[in-house]
Structure formats: structure tokens, C-alpha cells
Amino acid sequence: MQKIFYEKEIDLLHQLKELVSLTVDESIDYKIEDHGVRAVGSLAIKGEYISQEKRHFLENVELDVYADDQKIIDHQDFHLKVEDFHYDIIDGNLKIKIEVGVYGVEEGENRYIQLDEDPIDEIEKLSRDVETQTINEQVVAEAPEEIQDVEKLQEKIYETKEKEEKVDDDEDLGVYYLYVVLPNDTYASIARQYQVDEKMIRDYNQDLNLDAGQILIIPYAPKDHSNKV
């Protein structure tokens, strides 16, 4: 079994004084594909709380998990199930951590996904922080000896960061997929399978080493569906 942990903050306008009830229910469809099975659906987070009066909330977490035939141990047993969840009340809002079990597949490393407002934005931010730090170090290392003025050096770093952020802002981010890594998988082979740029996949996963059973986040790359002649 593989485990995926989803963490999500639910904004209740800082009015949560007491949590009355909380449930997490999965609603998932399974689709047989050419070389595996895809689980598509959502987790419904429902609850009741007290502020000035009793109120209800409903939040949905979208799921899309793909398992290759070579990774699946038992096709009939392949399914996703909410195993457990824990919550904290922070400054009148709710933070919940949901444990989802992926059954019928080989055991692999647990995967943690942060879901604040948009899971892709969170992953993008983490990746950008690492890249920005590397860029800053590279600029300092490559600065010629004649550049002794600290303000000029800082300006050069700022310009480099600004270019990187402009590229990020231009990306068309949409849904994402979760892929279970097979023993002989490489970033290149996965990129070909999903028709996504290899570097993009590496960036979204912070260039993790690929181990069998690991779950990778695959960014959605829109395709041009217009007719061509």
C-alpha cells in the first residue's frame, strides 16, 4: 500500500470558536487505460462549527492518481480510501491533514501534498525558492572582481529574479496528476509519456531521486486541439 498525505487550510474568516463535527468522504471513479488504471475524484471535507451561531462548511480536494500495470499488484484491489485525518484550530481557521491509502500497489515512500489555495501554487513556490537561492549564489560567484559595489550586485540579483518570476507568471497552470514511479522509470521517459517538458517535472518535484513506489506530481500541459492542415 502507498500513502498520500494531503494538508489543507480551510479559511473560516477566523470565526471558528468550536468545531462541532468534521467528516472526510471520498468519491472516486476508476478508469482502465492502455497501460494502467487512473483514479479520479475528490475528497469532500464537511463540518459544522460555532462562531456566533452554528455554521456549516464544505471543501473539496480534487484527486487524480495513475498507477501503471507494472506497479499494480492486484487490479481488483486497486482503490483509494481515506484512512484517517487530524485537524488543528489555528487563529479561528481549520487546518486538516488527510491520510489516503492507495491499495493494490507495491509499497513505496509516502508523499505529502500541501493544499493551501492551490496545490500547484504551493509546489511552484517551493521550487521557485530553491531556484532563486541557486540563482543568487551563482550571480555572486560569477560576479567579476571589478564589481565591488554592493548595490550594483544586489541590482543584478534583483534583475535575474525578476526575469525568472516573469517566466513563472507566464506559465499556464491547471490540473495536475499523481504518477506512481516504476523501477526503470526516468524523468525523460515519464516526460515522454505525459508529453510534458522534463525540466518542468523535475522542478515541480524538486528533482527528487526516482525510486520505485514514489509518487511524482505531473503538471498539466495544455495541448493545442485546433485542426491543422
Number of helices: 4
User: Could you estimate the helical fraction of the residues in percent?
Assistant: 25-40%
Low-confidence segments, ≥5 residues, pLDDT <50?
Answer: 117-127, 129-137, 143-151, 160-174, 223-229
Structural class: alpha+beta
Mean pLDDT: 76
Trace the largest sheet across and list its strands: 2-3-4-8-9
What is the global morphology? elongated
Rg on CA atoms, Å: 21 Å
Tell me the fraction of residues in β-strands, as a range.
35-45%
Strand count? 9
Distance between the termini: 47 Å
Overall domain count: 2
Task: Summarize the main sheet.
Answer: 5 strands, mixed
Order of helices and strands: EEEEEEEHHEHHE
Organism: Faecalibacillus intestinalis
Pfam family, one: LysM
Domain LysM: 178-219
Protein name: LysM domain-containing protein
Commentary on this structure:
The protein is of the alpha+beta class and 229 residues long. Strand 2 and strand 3 form a beta hairpin. The strands form two sheets. Strands 2-3-4-8-9 form a five-stranded mixed beta sheet. Strands 5-6-1-7 form a four-stranded mixed beta sheet. The chain is built from four helices and nine strands, in the order E-E-E-E-E-E-E-H-H-E-H-H-E. The chain folds into two domains: 117 residues, no CATH class; 44 residues, LysM domain (Membrane-bound Lytic Murein Transglycosylase D, Chain A).
Helix and strand arrangement:
Blueprint lengths: L1 E9 L7 E16 L2 E15 L3 E15 L10 E12 L2 E11 L7 E5 L3 H24 L7 H21 L5 E5 L6 H8 L3 H7 L10 E5 L10
Parallel strand pairs: 1-7, 4-8
Antiparallel strand pairs: 1-6, 2-3, 3-4, 5-6, 8-9
Helix pairs in contact: 1-2, 3-4
Pfam family, one: LysM
Protein name: LysM domain-containing protein
